[in-house]
Amino acid sequence: MVVLLPMVASTIILSDLHLGRTTRAAISPESIAELCAPFDRVVLNGDIYEAHHPSLKERATASWHHLQERLHAAGCEIIPIAGNHDAKAFERRDLFLEDGLVWVTHGDVLDERIAPWSLSANKMAKAWNQAASQMPIHQRLSLQGQLEISRAAGFSEWDLKPTDRVPSAGGTSLRKAMRDPSRLISVLRYWKECPDRMLRFARTTNVKSPILVLGHSHNAGRWRREDRTILNTGAFGFPGRPYAVVLNNTGVALLAVEREDDRYRLAEKPYWSDPWDVVQAQVSSD
Length: 286
What we know:
alpha/beta, Purple Acid Phosphatase, chain A, domain 2, five-stranded mixed beta sheet, 8 helices, 12 strands, 21% strand, globular
């Protein structure tokens, strides 16, 4: 079901905090809460915490609860969206904002392997196909059907053997992939294809939003594809840097998240921005 939320004074969208890791993650729940406190609404777009890693889950869950407490104390509305690392923790898989002008999803729906660089990529592809085969075709081809299939496929990553898991001290499967030539090629290919995959997915599932927001790949950026603007918020970990999508009454912007010691702040100058009348014109010209 499409959920449309009314315009509010301000919204910040972040992804891939990976709370629970000791490195290559957001510094702390406090640092994220301080960054988000000025906003009315906080959208956390997947891989918020390491719910899927047995040795990290307890610390990660505590960090997530602490972040919620801090944001609630600041008066923020919190909307978590499931990623593949926290697929079992949250029901929501996507979100329409500002009367449908902005669509947000983690991004793990764009490939049947979920994360082509993962040690369990083939296992997840098998689970994807199995989930798809058990779903009526009209549902399978719908937006919510595709999101549910990818959710089911992502569960396979939760079943890795201890020897196949990245170190609990803070390593990442993406970091591990960078040291394997064949898997590195998979990462680079995914990064290159990601904007086109997002456009194709939006068209085939009838998502008409002119602004498409995702994370997952850890590769932040802004791309223009036909009548759409595709924004990736990167990650609070290897190999890139975090960005935030900010929505307010004037428009939408993509800003770098800069670190100062143990704190974060938004860059003063946006990497990209558009006023709402320009965004609305994209809908009118479609």
